[in-house]
Amino acid sequence: MGDIVVLRLGHRPERDARVTTHVGLTSRALGASGMLLTSDDKSVAQSIERVDKSWGGGFWVRIGIGYRSEIKKWKEKGGIVVHLTMYGINLPDCIDTIRNEFKAKSIMVVVGAEKVPGDVYQLADYNVAVGNQPHSEIAALALFLDWLQQGREFEKTFRDGELKILPCEHGKSVERK
Ligand SMILES: C[S@@+](CC[C@H](N)C(=O)[O-])C[C@H]1O[C@@H](n2cnc3c(N)ncnc32)[C@H](O)[C@@H]1O
Fold it and tell me: With contact defined as beta carbons under 8 Å apart, do 103 and 150 qualify?
């Protein structure tokens, strides 16, 4: 199984901070190892890193990256690029092929905010729609990650955290290390 990294395009600090933070938290919770952010918004990186310090796992965030050069480097290293867009091939019609590639290759998942630059559709190996209707990058990302990993993301252990939830049917139980 390869690695999963999420690339977040087009973040506008004044409008998208909360959604981009949730893109990062969702990526971390559902099996990705890091997030690349085209914006240089430090506050988003800091809040995700704070969560990772408390809850473990070693998720990383890199800000201020250039999407073209990151995609190029990723492909040169043998990784594949999946761009989530409502205009793409519907998830059930392409997930088997992508899963097959994921057995040996790492995946970069690209999500947008505002209008996505046209060349992203050409740079991506797969343009995937999570239903051909407009909705949210967080929902699209969560569903894609789950379909890709078929639930195995829930088996992941988050090492070296300060806090760990002890699941219980009622109430809250948290172990502090
Ligand atoms: C709120 S949308 C805005 C998209 C923008 N209007 C455009 O034309 O590219 C932000 C992001 O959510 C994701 N998204 C929204 N609906 C989606 C869908 N049905 N399938 C896959 N991704 C979707 C895409 O990554 C998109 O770039």
Answer: no
Give 138-161 pLDDT, tens digit per residue: 999 999 999 999 999 999 999 999
Q: What percent of the chain has pLDDT over 90?
A: 93
Q: How far, CA to CA in Å, does 64 sit from each of 17, 70, 153?
A: 14, 11, 28
Q: Is the CB of 111 under 6 A from ligand 1?
A: yes
* Atom nearest to 83 CA in ligand 1: 25
If one residue of 22, 67, 85, 121 were mutated to test the ligand 1 pocket, choosing by the most ligand atoms within 8 A of its CB, it would be 85
DSSP 95: H
- In the chain, the domains with their CATH numbers are 4-176 (3.40.1280.10)
